[in-house]
Design goal:
With 552 residues, the chain is α/β, with parallel strands linked by helices. The protein has 4 domains: 107 residues, Up-down Bundle (Four Helix Bundle (Hemerythrin (Met), subunit A)), CATH 1.20.120; 121 residues, Response regulator (Rossmann fold, 3-Layer(aba) Sandwich); 128 residues, 3-Layer(aba) Sandwich (Rossmann fold); 151 residues, 2-Layer Sandwich (Alpha-Beta Plaits). It contains 20 helices and 19 strands. Helix 1 packs antiparallel against helix 11.
Amino acid sequence: MVDKNTNENLVKKLAQLQEKYLQSLPEELTYLEGLSKTLQANTLDALTISTLHQRLHKITGSAGTFGLPKLSQMSRSIEQRLKNWQDQELETISTVHLQALCEDIEELKQNMTEIESTVHSYLPTKQRPSFQEKAEHIWLVEDDPFLGQELSAQITSFGYEVTLYSSLKKVETAIKQGLPDLMLVDVIFADENKNSTDVLRLMPEFNARHCPVIFMSALDDFQSRIQATQLGAEGFCLKPLDVPRLMSKIEDIFAKRTAPVPRVLIVDDDSNLANHYKLVLLSAGMEAEVLENPKDILQVVMSFNPELVLMDVYMPDFTGPELAGVLRQHENWDSLPIVFLSSETDLDKQISAMEYGADDFLTKPISDSQLISAVTVRILRSRQLSALISRDSLTGLLKHSAIKDALSVEVNRSERSNTKVVVAMLDIDHFKEVNDTYGHAVGDVVISSVAAILRQRLRQYDIVGRYGGEEFVVVLPDCEIDSAYTIIEELRVHFSQVKFRHNDFFFNCTISAGLASTSTFEGSNGADLLIEADKAMYKAKQLGRNRVVIAK
């Protein structure tokens, strides 16, 4: 969580930015007043009009953020007038127009003291532990005893703690003592003649605190789906259940709690406003950086690796659309979300700017809560779309090509930061025998359980992929080989203790793993490290399997 001291520090910094802005404002308005009088003194020229327009555009976007909404509105009106002047012949601008301009800018100075209090919104963020301290607790609410027992055993094999309830009445009693981490609930309870969505809706303890719910049903009726949606359900699964897909959904729900911190790059020539946005996003638990020099945008995007770029449209040296176009020239960033944030209200100009590759257009001034919500929603959606493209449908892990690309990025980053990267190659022992003996459906459960354990027990910034079949790749950035060995060895031991069930028979599986580090193979690229890790893994197989071997 964002602690009290951090919150207070952020509030203090935001107040300091506001004070700095208010102190600089009189000088800026005096300068604008001088420009307007220069225009009035029969020295009407396009450059002065353009300069006046640009600086008023900046005030329009920033004044509201720093507690001067009326000043922002007045500035927008004058800015619009100047924009119209830029589109017409200078001879058509009369002395009456110029006199009115001077008077309006003088009025701006009179309104710069009407400060309204600014209310900042802070959203807490969870910090993910290095390892999962305890298994998540799932309530399975199912009145079919055979299905309940079978599903409970399969969910348990993925490393979760499961409590099975066969009636809604028992759930109503248990829920008064507290809620689990997730509820998996059948919709229709035939013996009780009840619909679980109706029952949960009437439980005050359930409605008072959010608990993720996935509903199960043998009937795909619209009304049940609507009621599930009204309850904020995270999913609606049809019977017979596709267990691996269900487990992937459960993993996705829990992964949201420990998802990587969103990273936002802010590109705006108004440093006070840009730093205000940065502090607001930091307060919401995000990482944010301000690009000081637009010429450095490629280097900064490469090193910071933002998930969203928040960019002004009108800047002195380069426009937002021009910078967006530069980013879109690079294949690695052709899907990077770019959101323009500008006081431009002309819809045609907004559409024209977005043609350069932007994904959305937000209008300044924007409140702190709106900024946080807009950024959060767009990054979440981007992650969802990226996952559909780059992640394996069974496990939710990165696909073969995606994990190789991620490894290359981390190796390059480690060279710049002078840190170490370890790559681990893991393989399920005797997996063909599992498929041949118990069937491919059970084999899918085993594969999915490896993925679940990897996600649960690795560090927040470690990267995991399904390399193919029963093989997995783990990339451990900023990690020494001894620490990596400890991590993978604990994973190996934990997986060997998981019990899988086929009918009434229980069995265990093991994994073999090979590790390769940039500390041992200096100068190696990602592909080289994978080859060395693969060799070490096969050595582990030759030595008897169910062990971890370090490449040397």
